[in-house]
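Protocol step 4 of 6: record predicted structures for both targets in the notebook before any analysis. Target 1:
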Amino acid sequence: MVWPFKPKFKKQIARIEITGAIAGATRKRVLEALKTVEEKKFPALLLRIDSPGGTVGDSQEIYSALKRLREKIKIVASFGNISASGGVYIGMGAEHIMANPGTITGSIGVILRGNNLERLLEKIGVSFKVIKSGPYKDILAFDRELTQPEAHILQELIDTSYQQFVQTVADARSLAVETVRSFADGRIFTGQQALELGIVDRLGTEEDARRWTAELVGLDPEKTLCHTLEERKPLLSRVLPGSRQVSSGIRSGIDWLEFEMSTSGLPLWLYRP
């Protein structure tokens, strides 16, 4: 079937927004949107990133999809208030990157957190009996201290994930691995500093990024529109727009709590202030 509005999309820029912590729901939404961009033959994509990062696997899948897509169309990433850790990694899938001078970015590294509730459990008289097939099957168990062999295993896991991150940044930005390592120690920096380090190409707003994207594909930056691909809103939000504003703060808090619980014990490319 021939898509009837193909000419219209060929004269527009697709726009995808990535906000908040990156996890499975983000990956699913973005991958579906990227598929739509390819099917409708948009000439370019403006990727707006405002995220502290998130899970390693989900960030890698989005990056890989962007890397495949940029073989067919131009992709420009626009870093918003914050584009850190996994947000940076996803940005590496774009051919060009723009950030605001004050954007918080960087935090290139890996973190894994577990909880040790042993003393609390002792106070309330709770203990666990564990039968396991190997000494490391309950690694990061919350009812006991981490052993030295376990810490060594987890450090190797973190180091491997970190090397993948560093190598991706080095390849995407045409930098030496050692150069990337010199600032990939978890520190955050501004968009201005990121430009000096070679992480971004230009400084500017999302509107500047839109104009740049249009110019890259020979479209008029004064007239070219962005077509934002977003998840369909719930019926209540569409009928009563105010209801979304009232619950947005509560919803974001719940979303973050769910993310914290679901990613406990997982390696994360995440900036934690």
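Target 2:
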Amino acid sequence: MRAAIYLTLATLFWAGNFVVGHAAVETMAPLQLTFWRWALAALPLLVLAQVIDRPDWRAVLRQWPLLLLLSCLGMTGYTLLLYSALGHTSALNASLVTAANPALILVLAVVLFRERPAPASWLGVALGLAGVLLVLTGGELHRLLTFSLKAGELLILAAITVWAGYTVLARRQSLPAITSTAVQVAMAAVVLAPVAAATGAGLPSAPAEAWSLAFIVVFPSLGSYLLWNLALTRTSPANAGNYLNLIAVFTAIITVLLGRPISVTQVLGGVLVISGVFLTSAGQRPGGPQRPRSSKSTSSSPSPVAWLRPR
């Protein structure tokens, strides 16, 4: 029960990142929001890593080339693309497309590492793709023939592609989850600092912007990671992975509570995407993709699901 509460709250906070991020980018640049999110979260995450993981920091820093690459992909690239997309599409659309990440990750694992998923996984990939196309085109599939996807749709597709690459590479390293995340966040803040200074990306001055940034730092950036990793000490990563479907559900609920309309196309697309994720996960557990023996999960678990969590 405690693990279920932790996972539910973690996904609720991540859903909040889509909604609050969508509002924040109306007045803040994606670079400004990305830099301050990680700059303000870096020190607390490093402290959490020391308290919970107690890592050998010298051994951690020996993996700096891979950690830097992961930071550029997952912390900098994905987050910049996500917030840029939220400036052009709805939070619900973004969360529904992002929910297809497990299927895309599965495809990359097959292409790069020749993994052999079960047939159910391929059915899940097909359903997820159908749902994403339905959401992206608004039910007007003929738009694909003319390549008339909008900027927000293209940006969120780029974001999940970068995240899929990040996830596949992240499975190749063996650091504890919070430690790995904390170091990547700190690296992102350092890398982005000169660019943020050159572009004048200072701290927000308007109260609404400050509250949005504070929410993103405290809840999606710190709270979700801590709750997620605490849950993984009490349940399997495979079970935890199923809770990721709640992100799109919570985003839809928040959208309704805010009085914004939800279309039939979004509902149908969401059902297809989430059904596809369940089938993909079900196909992996009994005989699906396995990781190389030389690597370990960042949560000290044999499953890669912990790396599917969104940022």
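Step 5 preliminary note on target 2. The first helix runs from residue 2 to 24. Residues 177 and 299 are 5 Å apart (CA to CA).
Proceed to step 6 after PI sign-off.
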